[in-house]
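Quick one:
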Amino acid sequence: MARYQVILAYDGSGFTGSQRQANSRTVQGELENALRLIGWSGRSVLMAGRTDTGVHATGQVAAFDFDEWTHPAAKMLQALNAKLPSDLAVKDLHPVSAEFHPRFDAVSRAYSYRLFNEPIRDPLRERFAWRVWPTLDGEALTRNAALFLGTHDFAAFGSPTSEKGTTMRTVTGSEWRKKRDGEWQFEVRADAFLYRMVRRLVFVQVTLAQGKAAVKDVQQALLGQGRLPPGLAPAHGLALVDVDYGSF
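Output:
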């Protein structure tokens, strides 16, 4: 019996999230189907975390035990990709310790969010980026990202991932970058994220950059006080890009 770790990339447009659900097409379900086609007899793969309907990934992590594979790991990667649908791929596959758990052993996760600021629809671009209008202040967008660095109570920015879970999170990276094509990309890393936290962070920052909210409102929200405009950035601009395991 050997445990394998895989790094997954997927276009989330055609999935109702990453976690297996009855009667719905999910990333976990498609991965398990492909594994069974190459001889896997396990019940369930382990996932690093859940992504919502429409959310993409370039660095999702999963793990599974396989007791009948006698070929090199590279052959398993090739075999899986031959069975997976076109919107899901295994980028990397290798054996890991039998104790490895992709969710509980993670020390941080990183997401990116893409948006562009234009008055006219761009159907192809909007598959992976949020079109924002009216115009926004790019300098404010860049400056305000630092508000979220450090350890805060992010209750105003998401829901706990378990019934008794804490809303305290430590954000170690929060930055906007403007690309050559004029697109903005938000990059954020934390020890963990609340449910829908990144989409909420992006929405609030956009309201700041459009002058619809004030910095003091965000500062108060991080102290558990005051109110912020309700709303979430759309799912299609979001991607899980990395799960870090330190020296595991």
